[in-house]
Amino acid sequence: MGLVLTAVGLYGVVSYNVSQRTRELGLRIALGADRRDTLWLVFREVTMMGGVGLIVGLPVALMATRLLTSLLFGVSPWDLSSFAVSAAVVALVLMVAGWIPAKRATAVEPSIALRVS
Description:
The protein has helices at residues 2-19, 22-30, 35-67, 80-107, 110-115. The protein has 117 residues and is mostly helical. The chain is built from five helices and no strands. The protein has one domain (2-115).
């Protein structure tokens, strides 16, 4: 349940932040940037953000499970498959959350994107 709540919240925050950059992306395209390069720029930024989050979050999660051992039933505190699946789901959600709004923002005509307030 916690993974689902994390995925939904993460998708909402990341997609909102990327959609707020529509004007910036429209300006880049209006100045001659390739739509594909602009899309990859956003995708790289979201991937870097997710990578930093996973690098910081996994050790913290490992420590937290060690402290909460008495509350874990049927799972060891060092269950690597649970951590791997959780990290993969979070990474996938991040990629989709960045890709969809960036694709939509780069598909808009630059003149229309610049008029959005």
